[in-house]
């Protein structure tokens, strides 16, 4: 304990007292300087004795002070640790506050949109019902009502595009899907028997939907009506299997003629007689005539009766000439084709 306290006392002697002691010592006579070490030793012994006496007298107090100092050091260490943690937490809190401050405009905007949505909850509820109403109209084939609902939703989206931008994202896909389903349903109707007024109504409705360009709509119209014609011809060929070849090809030609005439008439009525329509229409006509001529190549050699063959040729020429009324005369294709068969038949007769 004394060894612990003694250095503490020695450390308390500052440099000024030491300098003062040296000046006093050097100012004394030589005889006094000789006695100085002994005198210092005596003082040291006296100081040590006093220290021992002090320690013995205040032993418990010194122990308590020593323990208190140790405890204070421990507490100061804990305080330092807690301060470090607090500093880290304060830094994190500051960062969170800055982030919150940055996001405040977004929060306010969301709150404003929520309030606007609440103010227009009636219209939003109507929009929620629009898809179901459109689907019901579609099942009942009430296409005009379905279009009116589509136009209403588009106007509502346009009107509230800035105030409620999320509404369009939420509902537009559903409404667009129903509109596409309506478009597909109308196109599928064109692949079935359709009279002119109904065909015009379908084309008009498809134009109002607006998903198809004019060129695509024309091409799809011809394609779907061609599907109907194919189904009609294939069905007829199956029903005419047991008939003789002349009757079979004659009925096939009549069905093709009336079907093509109907499709061309519907096309011209729906889209008008315009030079821009010639390419689509003429390509399709050439395709149909090519298939028909392939059927003739198979059937004509099987007809041995000259009068029946003549009747078939006249029917083919009338078929070509009748299309002149609608601007699609293909006599220039069929006449050389029939001439080649006539020559071949004539050679065969001479040979026999």
Fold blueprint:
Blueprint: H1 2-12, H2 15-26, H3 30-57, H4 59-119, H5 121-139, H6 143-159, H7 165-190, H8 196-209, H9 214-239, H10 245-271, H11 275-299, H12 306-322, H13 331-351
In short:
By secondary structure, this protein is an all-alpha fold. It is 86% helix and 0% strand.
Shape: rod-shaped
Structural class, from secondary structure content? mainly alpha
Q: What radius of gyration results from the CA coordinates?
A: 55 Å
Query: How much helix is in the residues?
Result: over 70%
Number of strands: 0
C-alpha end-to-end distance = 151 Å
Instruction: Supply the number of helical segments.
Output: 13
Let me know the average pLDDT. Answer: 81
Count of folded domains:
3
Could you spell the SSE succession in H and E letters?
HHHHHHHHHHHHH
User: What does the main sheet amount to?
Assistant: none
Looking at this protein, list some descriptive labels:
352 residues, mainly alpha, 3 domains, 0% strand, rod-shaped, disordered N terminus
Question: If you had to describe this structure to a student in words, what would you say it looks like?
Answer:
The chain has helices spanning 2-12, 15-26, 30-57, 59-119, 121-139, 143-159, 165-190, 196-209, 214-239, 245-271, 275-299, 306-322, 331-351. The protein is rod-shaped, with a radius of gyration of 55 Å. The chain has 352 residues and is mostly helical. The chain is 86% helix and 0% strand. The chain has 3 domains: 2-57, no CATH class; 123-190, no CATH class; 214-351. Helix 7 runs parallel beside helix 9 (214-239) and helix 9 runs antiparallel to helix 10 (245-271).
């Amino acid at each position: 304990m004394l060894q612990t306290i003694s250095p503490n006392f020695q450390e308390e002697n500052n440099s000024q007292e030491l300098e003062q002691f040296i000046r006093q010592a050097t100012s004394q006579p030589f005889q006094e300087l000789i006695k100085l070490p002994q005198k210092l030793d005596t003082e040291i012994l006296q100081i040590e004795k006093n220290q021992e006496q002090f320690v013995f007298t205040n032993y418990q107090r010194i122990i308590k002070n020593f323990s208190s100092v140790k405890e204070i050091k421990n507490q100061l260490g804990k305080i330092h640790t807690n301060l470090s943690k607090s500093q880290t937490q304060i830094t994190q809190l500051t960062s969170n506050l800055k982030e919150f401050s940055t996001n405040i405009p977004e929060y306010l905007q969301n709150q404003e949109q929520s309030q606007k949505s609440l103010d227009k909850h009636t219209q939003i509820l109507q929009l929620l019902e629009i898809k179901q109403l459109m689907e019901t109209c579609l099942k009942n084939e009430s296409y005009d009502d379905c279009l009116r609902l589509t136009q209403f939703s588009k106007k509502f989206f346009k009107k509230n595009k800035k105030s409620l931008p999320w509404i369009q994202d939420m509902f537009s896909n559903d409404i667009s899907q129903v509109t596409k389903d309506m478009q597909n349903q109308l196109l599928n109707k064109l692949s079935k028997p359709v009279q002119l007024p109904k065909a015009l109504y379908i084309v008009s409705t498809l134009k109002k939907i607006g998903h198809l360009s004019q060129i695509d709509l024309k091409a799809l119209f011809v394609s779907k009506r061609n599907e109907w014609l194919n189904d009609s011809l294939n069905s007829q060929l199956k029903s005419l299997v047991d008939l003789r070849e002349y009757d079979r090809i004659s009925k096939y030609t009549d069905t093709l003629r009336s079907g093509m005439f109907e499709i061309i008439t519907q096309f011209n009525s729906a889209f008008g007689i315009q030079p821009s329509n010639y390419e689509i229409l003429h390509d399709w006509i050439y395709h149909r005539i090519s298939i028909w001529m392939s059927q003739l190549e198979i059937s004509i050699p099987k007809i041995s009766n000259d009068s029946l063959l003549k009747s078939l040729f006249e029917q083919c020429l009338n078929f070509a000439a009748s299309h002149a009324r609608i601007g699609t005369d293909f006599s220039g294709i069929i006449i050389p084709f029939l001439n080649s068969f006539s020559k071949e038949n004539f050679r065969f007769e001479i040979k026999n």
